[in-house]
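User: Can you help me understand a structure? I only have the sequence.
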Amino acid sequence: GLAAWILLRSFFPGPSIPWTPEMTTASRTMASTVSALSRHCRELGIQPVPGLDPNGTCLVGPELSPLVTSLGQLEAKRTTTNPDVAGLLVHLLKEAGVELGDVVAIGASGSFPALLLATLAAVDALGARPRTILSLGASSYGATRPEHHLLDLHGFLEGTGLVSGPPLAVSLGGEGDEGENMDPGFRTGLLEELRESEIRMLLGPDLRSNVEERMALYGSPAAFVNIGGAEATMGVSPKVLSVPPGLVEEGVEPPSREQRGVLFEMLGRGVPVLHLLHVRGLVLRYDLPWDPRPLPQPGSAVFRDGRAEKGVGFWLLSGAYVGGLILVAFGRAPGRKGKDQDQTVR
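Assistant: Let's start by predicting it. Here is the structure, written out as tokens:
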């Protein structure tokens, strides 16, 4: 599994990614903002649960709440609170071609609030401009506190000066990206809260209209960052599962137009996409530290490019590793009962 693959990568690591001044700036910005957010939450009477958020970031929420619309992995959420994630995103945005003054479109669900912070810190460090649409539904351990959801986090970031104004728009998230699987009473209260905020609400009648409205709001960005798995962003086709984590520019077959979310619309228009959902995949692709405790000092991570071409030794060892897995699978096949154990719920 993961441990064996990490061991394999340790024998044949990809080339390291050098730190640039912009990467360091983004990482330091995220670290200082996390500290400020932690103090802010305590002032509001929100105390981090030591077993869930041992680093006290206030970016890891409860497992269950009225905002939870799907299951999530606790260790993955904690992994994204590392300030150096912001540095890695600077590298990926620069690879995507983002330059000073460019617009970066962001679609963020409440599943990974730390990735929203990291993305905004990276965009700021590059001198680019964010255009952000939020979906408030979240998977377990994300921005799941009703008293401090993703829009509240964005408001805090406005107060720090990291962003200069409110998001372009907000949706409820969840099923249909309209909170259809939320408790009806909670959904009504959340809608009323959003109306009072006077921020544009997205409540389109179907996926196609939801996607078209978002694309019109984003305009012509230099890159698009998807954070989490909001339905209007991901679409409803299983083909979205083939989209690799990290920077994606081409090579992914699009679904039909009726099933397509913003992610595929952007790729179809030639806009580079940063796909930030499968954290375990990001860990393997870029050597991101997994579930660090305590959080590392800004600028200390050694990132490696897992996409770089490997030598013959790597592929021989890879072949032996995969071959071994196949032999084990065939050896167990006759006596297997029930479902596979290694399944992931999105």
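Now, to help you interpret it: The two ends are 19 Å apart (CA to CA). Confidence is low (pLDDT under 50) at residues 309-326, 328-346. Let me know which part you'd like to focus on.
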